[in-house]
Specification:
There is one protein chain. This protein is α+β, with helices and mostly antiparallel strands and about 290 residues long. Helices cover about 25% and strands about 30% of the residues. Strands 2, 3, 4, 5, 6, 7, 8, 9 and 11 form a nine-stranded antiparallel beta sheet that branches. A six-stranded mixed beta sheet has the order 1-12-13-14-15-10. It is globular and about 50 Å long. The model has no long low-confidence stretch (mean pLDDT about 95).
Length: about 290
């Protein structure tokens, strides 16, 4: 494992001698534009492990993506290897069916301190909730990014990440009422504390998320990748290209269903993902939106 291979994977060609915010922003953005957020291993009969060498080989050397317990674990290693003051944190994703945050510490994020200021780095949430750059750990501040205006709210030892959304404009009338379309003006994303975590804190939930029949990740096969104008996503058999139009206050969703025969080509052409084992797409009803 080395930084040079990782930087080549994300297309970063600059100097990383300066441990400043500008460098952190750049590699953060390059990661989310190059490495998909995906859980396809679960639906290919593969096991997802929190072994850094396995993750490095998968994401860096095999041009795959991963979910947060892979992407953000790897990204934290990169930041520490570079010399950044980095701490792993755990968070709980908002579940719209429960109308509350999940009881599981299922989402891994990284806190980075630069010149006395703290930032949240998260390169693996995907779709429209994905931040392109780290968020400053300041309560209530508007932090506009491509996907919308993000806010971190300090609620007495628990921080909440939320986003002010734009209106969806769905081009294909067949998807006008799709459960994948977010129609909320404010989207709760996750909550977290500032308690430092080690990798073993996530081991049990890493297993549960890929085996429990109630888990989002066993109920939906997901692959998403950020683009200069929005993002692409393949959820089950539904392929979407989303274009952000902040000047018009809308997100334009171009959605269509694809056949099993198209899946391999779409993954390669749109996400640069080539699977070793055959994917069995899944899209059961759940609380997931683009």
């Amino acid at each position: 494992m080395n930084l040079e291979e990782y930087f080549k994977r994300i297309g970063f060609h600059g100097s990383y001698d300066k441990l400043d915010l500008a460098t952190l922003k750049l590699i953060h953005k390059q990661h989310v534009m190059s490495v998909p957020f995906e859980n396809l291993s679960i639906h290919c009969g593969e096991r997802i492990t929190m072994d850094l060498e396995v993750i490095f080989n998968k994401i860096v050397r095999s041009s795959r993506g991963g979910w947060c317990l892979e992407n953000n674990f790897l990204f934290g290693w990169v930041l520490r290897k570079m010399g950044y003051d980095t701490t792993m944190l755990s968070s709980r994703v908002f579940n719209s069916i429960l109308n509350d945050f999940s009881p599981l510490d299922s989402h891994l994020i990284n806190k980075v301190v630069i010149d006395g200021k703290a930032y949240v780095a998260d390169v693996s949430f995907g779709v429209s909730s994905q931040v392109r750059e780290p968020l400053e750990l300041v309560s209530g501040k508007d932090q506009p990014q491509a996907g919308g205006v993000f806010h971190l709210i300090d609620k007495e030892d628990i921080w909440v990440l939320e986003k002010t959304c734009r209106k969806p404009e769905v081009l294909n009338p067949d998807f006008a009422k799709s459960s994948l379309v977010n129609r909320k003006e404010t989207k709760q994303i996750y909550s977290f504390t500032l308690v430092p975590r080690e990798a073993d804190h996530f081991f049990e939930n890493n297993h549960k998320l890929q085996t429990d029949s109630s888990s989002l990740f066993t109920n939906k096969s997901i692959c998403s990748l950020q683009t200069p104008t929005g993002f692409r996503a393949l959820i089950g058999w539904t392929y979407s290209e989303v274009t952000y139009k902040p000047e018009q206050g809308v997100d334009v969703l171009d959605m269509r269903d694809i056949t099993d025969d198209e899946i391999e080509r779409i993954l390669m052409e749109k996400f640069n993902v080539k699977l070793q084992n055959k994917l069995k797409p899944v899209s059961n009803k759940s609380w997931y939106t683009l």
